[in-house]
Amino acid sequence: MNLRDKLSLKNDEVRCELQDPSAVAEISNTLFNWLPSSPVEIVIVCIGTDRSTGDSLGPLTGTLLNDKNLNNLTVYGTLKDPVHAKNLEEKLKQIYQKHNAPFVIAIDACLGKVKSIGSIITKKGPIRPGAALNKDLPGVGDVHLSAVVNISGFMEYLVLQNTRLHIVMQLARKISNSIYQLDRIITLHTPKITYKSESVSL
Fold it and tell me: Residue 129 in 3-state DSSP?
């Protein structure tokens, strides 16, 4: 898949494969290009729960990010303090109370076609958590990353429960490395702009 294949006609979506050696650069550069031109707090919201293997992508990614020395990003959603369906609205309310009009990057797992398993989709606009399970939850993010962890179409709840941790962990590492690279790009390209960075438990 070349760059032309990865970019949609509207240039608002990039799709990378897990084994693509250029995925980290592709995702991080895309996110950087989509950031607002004016200084703004950047918040990463990693959605999911460790009670379901397939749905653990978000908190695994958040935990991996917490282990990195981020300078410009605030991370919510870890294994210790997850952001999931039951607390999503409350967490979002607290985030927007704490941060003044932040630019939010949401991260979540999704289901798709067999050939799409292992794909990471970076897209403008909010993600709809719980859509595969027909949950009515608020959209999250100015942009989002979703990773296809398993197949959709039948008994999605059981599919998520029985997803292999190996693929989820691989995707979480790839996404966390991409976000870390984004943080480095921000530092290199905007040395005069000070972004607030912290890891928070709400």
Answer: coil
Report residue 158 as tokens: 């059981």
200 within some domain: no
Q: Count the neighbouring beta carbons within 10 Å of the beta carbon of residue 155.
A: 9
Q: What is the pLDDT along the chain (202 residues), one digit of tens a residue?
A: 444 344 433 579 999 999 999 999 999 999 999 999 888 999 999 999 999 998 999 999 999 999 999 999 999 999 999 999 899 999 999 999 999 999 999 999 999 899 999 999 999 999 988 655 566 788 999 999 999 998 887 767 678 877 899 999 999 999 999 999 999 999 998 655 455 555 566 6
Taking each helix axis from N to C end, the angle separating 165-189 and 57-66, rounded to the nearest 10 degrees, works out to: 40
CA atoms of 195 and 44, how far apart (whole Å): 13
User: What CATH code is carried by the domain that includes residue 16?
Assistant: 3.40.50.1450
The helix/strand/coil state of 110 is strand
SS3 of residue 191 by DSSP: coil
Determine, yes or no, domain membership for 120. Answer: yes
Range of the domain at 150: 3-188
Span between the terminal Cα atoms of the chain, in Å: 41
Other beta carbons less than 10 A from residue 151's beta carbon: 16
Query: From residue 96, how far is each of 89, 106, 140, 197 by CA, in Å?
Result: 11, 14, 12, 15
CB 139 within 8 A of CB 126: yes
**Which tokens is 82 given?**
């997850």
